[in-house]
């Protein structure tokens, strides 16, 4: 029965085909349409709009034995159903196509077995989905609750030619030196929101706490890859239950983490803290920008030798890790929003508030503006070549193109930046 709120005394009685069975579940979707699930496995969609009220728009047999429950995620734009020990997902805009089918384990719990509780074949019970559509929970009459992840947050980090990325809500896979194809998956036991990768360490943040882990060195990765290749294809690589080597709490939510071999630079709020990764008696810690600068943090980057950061009063600052002191300061004409330092040399590629791109050398405070290529307003980032012969080569990229430049020291007019391709 359907009734409009302003006409409750004039309801519309709906009748459906007998083969559908009894209405078992229904959900509203797309502002005025209803999905109805029947116990014989059928699902139909009808309209609740006055001009076509009760009209059957779509009908299909979803399950042969029984349908237990249906759920709708408007943000995910999906219809989720359970029945016949299976979960199916369909797109609300194209209900005739199944986008995913997953079998659900409905083994009875030990408690149910001990109590000798018996259930009918229709073991699955209810399905619910979170508002953002990321988690789906399925319950069964035997007491089993299964939670599925429908979409993973995009979370990754890199260090030189090593990368790490989220492979499960609490698992991170580290690929050290990508060309060697060695990888290791760490079970962290927490759901990270921020990650940072260094040459030998992984850092993950949850709210205002950062956990630091060791991961395999490239040599160990290569040995692990050889072991994996000797296993059968059906065997999955082992997942390591990782224990943190250090845990540090900060004053507010962690926004970004960068690691070197010994140090971590952690951005929280408008502050940046630099400290050793491992606890020790000699464990210096310092926050930037310093109070006497009377400025806020704009950008930062960490290399093996320096911490580079920029401030709201236009400064680019080089802080030496070995000397534990500021060794270079340069005041630009406008604030610098992004810095991409060379991993070894004391030069960095910078993007400023005027949408200009330039190379800054901390040795002599020289600034070399990049040749006008493409639209600098759309530049997304920059990266340096680490191969020894071409280490003065760097690339700047936007959403569609990569532009390669060379920092030339043999130009007739002195150092300059040359566009290559």
UniProtKB/TrEMBL annotation:
Residues 163-418 form the WDR19 WD40 repeat domain. Keywords: Repeat, WD repeat. Residues 1-143 form the WDR19 first beta-propeller domain. PANTHER family: OSMOTIC AVOIDANCE ABNORMAL PROTEIN 1/WD REPEAT MEMBRANE PROTEIN, WD REPEAT DOMAIN 19. This is ANAPC4_WD40 domain-containing protein. It holds the Pfam family Beta-prop_WDR19_2nd. Gene3D superfamilies: YVTN repeat-like/Quinoprotein amine dehydrogenase. It comes from the Eukaryota. GO terms for biological process: cilium assembly; intraciliary retrograde transport. SUPFAM superfamilies: WD40 repeat-like (SSF50978). It comes from Caenorhabditis tropicalis. One of its GO terms (cellular component) is cilium. The keyword Repeat applies.
């Amino acid at each position: 029965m359907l009734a409009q709120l302003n006409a409750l005394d004039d309801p519309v009685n709906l009748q459906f085909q007998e083969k559908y069975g009894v209405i078992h579940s229904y959900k509203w979707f797309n502002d005025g349409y209803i999905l109805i699930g029947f116990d014989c496995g059928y699902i139909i969609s009808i309209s609740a709009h006055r001009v076509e009220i009760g009209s059957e728009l779509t009908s299909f047999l979803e399950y042969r034995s029984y349908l237990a429950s249906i759920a709708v995620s408007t943000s995910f734009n999906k219809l989720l159903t359970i029945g016949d020990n299976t979960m199916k997902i369909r797109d609300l805009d194209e209900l005739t196509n199944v986008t995913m089918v997953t079998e659900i384990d409905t083994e009875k719990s030990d408690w149910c077995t001990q109590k000798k509780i018996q259930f009918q074949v229709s073991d699955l019970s209810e399905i619910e989905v979170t508002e953002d559509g990321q988690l789906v929970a399925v319950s069964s009459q035997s007491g089993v609750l299964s939670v599925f992840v429908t979409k993973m947050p995009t979370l990754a980090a890199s260090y030189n030619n090593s990368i790490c990325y989220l492979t499960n809500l609490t698992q991170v896979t580290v690929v050290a030196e990508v060309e060697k194809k060695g990888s290791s998956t760490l079970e962290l036991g927490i759901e990270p929101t921020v990650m940072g990768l260094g040459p030998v360490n992984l850092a993950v943040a949850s709210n205002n706490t950062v956990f630091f882990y060791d991961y395999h060195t490239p040599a160990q990765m290569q040995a692990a890859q050889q072991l994996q290749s000797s296993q059968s294809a059906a065997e999955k690589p082992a997942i390591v239950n990782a224990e943190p080597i250090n845990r540090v709490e900060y004053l507010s939510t962690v926004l970004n983490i960068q690691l070197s071999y010994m140090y971590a630079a952690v951005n929280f709020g408008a502050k940046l803290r630099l400290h050793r990764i491992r606890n020790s008696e000699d464990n210096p810690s310092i926050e930037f920008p310093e109070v006497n600068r009377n400025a806020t943090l704009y950008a930062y980057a960490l290399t093996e030798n320096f911490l580079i950061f920029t401030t709201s009063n236009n400064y680019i600052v080089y802080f030496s890790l070995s000397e534990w002191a500021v060794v270079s300061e340069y005041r630009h004409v406008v604030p610098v929003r992004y810095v991409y330092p060379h991993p070894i040399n004391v030069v960095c590629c910078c993007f400023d508030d005027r949408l200009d791109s330039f190379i800054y050398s901390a040795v002599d405070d020289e600034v070399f503006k990049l040749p006008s290529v493409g639209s600098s307003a759309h530049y997304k980032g920059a990266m340096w070549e680490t191969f020894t012969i071409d280490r003065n080569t760097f690339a700047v990229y936007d959403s569609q193109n990569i532009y390669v430049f060379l920092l030339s020291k043999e130009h007739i007019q002195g150092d300059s930046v040359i566009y290559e391709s």
